[in-house]
Write a structure and sequence with these properties.
Number of helices: 10
Number of domains: 2
CATH topology of the largest domain: Rossmann fold
Number of strands: 13
Structural class: alpha/beta
Low-confidence stretches: none
Radius of gyration: 19 Å
CATH class of the largest domain: Alpha Beta
Strand order of the largest sheet: 3-2-1-4-5-6-11
Shape: globular
CATH superfamily of the largest domain: NAD(P)-binding Rossmann-like Domain
Distance between the termini: 44 Å
Bound molecules: NADP nicotinamide-adenine-dinucleotide phosphate, ligand G4F
Order of helices and strands: EHEEHEHHEHEEHEEEHEEHEHH
Mean pLDDT: 98
Strand content: 15-25%
Helix content: 40-55%
CATH architecture of the largest domain: 3-Layer(aba) Sandwich
Length: 324
C-alpha cells in the first residue's frame, strides 16, 4: 500500500516541489488549500490531476481536524505560513496567527485524530536572526529579528513540546533560504532575476532594492524538499539544519544575475528606503553537517547555478508570454 502524505502550503514554492517529489516516491498526495476568490494553483497545475486538494485553513481548527480525518495521512508536512518577512511587520498579529498558532492547531488535530501521524514543521534560519554563532547549527541560540522570526521560534518550540508531551513523531527542519524559478516575486532572488530579465528584454529600466549588504545561505528548493522527506523517514524525530554552508551578499546575487544577461548592474540598481527593514538579519550561514551525517543529505545546486537557472527561466517565461 502506498503511503499517504498531507502537505499544507502545497500551492507555495516548497509545496509544489515536495508534491512532485512524493509522487515520484509513489505516495498518495493530499494538499490543504485555503479558499481564495481567485484560484492560485499555477505552481501545481502540471500535477493537479495526481494530487487531491482538500479545503482548509491554518486559522480554522475544525477544517484541519476534518482534513486529517478525511485523508488519514501517514505523514504531514506543515509548509503553510505567512512567509514574507517584510509583511510580518505590517501584519504582525496575522503572521503570528498563521505561522505560530497554526502549528499548534495542526499538532492538536494530529493528537486527537491520529497521534501516529509523522509531522514535519517548516522552521527557518530567520530564528537565528542576530546570530549568536557563525555558522549556525541546531544548538545555536535563537534571536529572531522580525514578527515572522518570532512566530517561527514559537512553531519550533511547540513542535518540540508536542513531541515531548505526547510522544509525537514531530520534527523541526531549520531550513536556510532556498529559491527556485517558482519563488514568489517579492523575495529578493526572484525580484532580481525577473527584473534583470525584464531589463535585458527592454521591458524595465531599473531595479529598486533595499539592503545590498546582507548575506544569505541560498540553496535550491528542489534539493531541500528531499531533506524534509528524509527527516520523516528516521526512526526518531529530531531537529536538523539544512543549508549549503556558503554565504553570499545580496550585491553578489545582483552581480551574478546581471553578468548572466551581459549587463553592468551598477547602471540599473537603485537603492530605495522602502525596501529596508526595521531590523535586519545581517548574516546567515548554516552548518548542515548533522543533516549530512544522519540523513545522508547534501545540496546539489551551487549558488551560481541557482541564480543562472532562475534568470534563464525568467527570460523564457517573459519571452513565451510576449509570444502569446
Ligand atoms: P510560500 O511560497 O510563501 O508558500 C506558503 C504557502 O502557505 C502557500 O501555499 C500559501 O497558500 C499557504 N498558506 C498561507 N496562509 C495559509 C493559511 N492561513 N491556511 C492555509 N495555507 C496557507 O512559502 P515557501 O517558500 O514555499 O516556504 C514553505 C514554508 O517553509 C513556509 O512555512 C516558510 O515560512 C518556510 N521556510 C521557507 C524558507 C525559504 O527560503 N523558502 C526557508 C525556511 C523556512 P496560498 O497560495 O493560498 O497563499
Ligand atoms: O529574499 P528575502 O525577502 O528573504 P528573507 O527575509 O531572508 O526570508 C526568506 O528566507 C527565510 C529563511 O532564512 C524564510 F524563512 C522566509 O520565509 C523567506 O523565505 O530577503 C533576503 C535579504 C534581506 O536581507 C533583505 O533585506 O535581501 C534583502 N533585500 C534587499 N533588497 C531585499 C530587497 N529583500 C526583498 N524581499 N526585496 C528587496 O527589494
Amino acid at each position: 500500500m502506498s503511503k499517504r502524505a498531507l502537505i499544507t502550503g502545497i500551492t507555495g514554492q516548497d509545496g509544489s516541489y515536495l508534491a512532485e517529489f512524493l509522487l515520484g516516491k509513489g505516495y498518495e498526495v493530499f494538499g490543504l488549500v485555503r479558499r481564495t476568490s481567485t484560484i492560485n494553483f499555477s505552481r501545481i497545475e502540471h500535477i493537479q490531476d495526481q494530487v487531491t486538494l482538500i479545503p482548509g485553513d491554518m486559522l480554522d481548527q475544525t477544517s484541519l481536524q476534518t482534513a486529517l480525518a478525511q485523508c488519514q495521512p501517514d505523514e504531514i508536512y506543515n509548509l503553510a505560513a505567512q512567509s514574507f518577512v517584510q509583511t510580518s511587520w505590517g501584519q504582525p498579529v496575522f503572521t503570528g496567527d498563521v505561522t505560530a498558532l497554526g502549528v499548534t492547531r495542526l499538532l492538536d488535530a494530529i493528537r486527537h485524530v491520529d497521534p501516529t501521524i509523522r509531522f514535519y514543521q517548516a522552521s527557518s534560519s530567520e530564528m537565528f536572526g542576530k546570530v549568536r554563532e557563525v555558522p549556525q547549527r541546531e544548538t545555536t541560540p535563537f534571536y529572531p529579528r522580525s514578527p515572522y522570526g518570532v512566530a517561527k521560534v514559537y512553531g519550533h518550540w511547540i513542535t518540540i513540546n508536542y513531541r515531548e508531551s505526547y510522544n509525537l513523531h514531530a520534527t523541526s527542519g531549520i531550513l536556510f533560504n532556498h529559491e527556485s524559478p517558482r519563488r514568489g516575486m517579492e523575495f529578493v532572488t526572484r525580484k532580481v532575476t525577473h527584473t534583470a530579465a525584464r531589463i535585458k528584454l527592454g521591458m524595465a529600466k531599473e531595479l529598486r532594492l533595499g539592503n545590498l549588504d546582507s548575506q544569505r545561505d541560498w540553496g535550491f528548493a528542489g534539493d531541500y524538499v528531499e531533506a524534509m522527506w528524509l527527516m520523516l523517514q528516521q526512526e526518531s524525530p529530531d531537529d536538523y539544519v539544512v543549508a549549503t554552508g556558503e554565504t553570499h551578499r545580496v550585491e553578489e546575487l545582483v552581480q551574478v544575475a546581471f553578468d548572466h544577461v551581459g549587463l553592468d548592474w551598477h547602471d540599473y540598481v537603485v537603492q530605495d528606503p522602502r525596501f529596508m527593514r526595521p531590523a535586519e538579519v545581517d548574516l546567515l550561514v548554516g552548518d548542515p553537517s548533522k543533516a549530512g551525517e544522519q540523513l545522508g543529505w547534501e545540496p546539489r545546486v551551487t549558488f551560481g547555478e541557482l541564480v543562472r537557472m532562475m534568470v534563464e527561466s525568467d527570460l523564457k517565461l517573459l519571452h513565451d508570454s510576449n509570444c502569446d
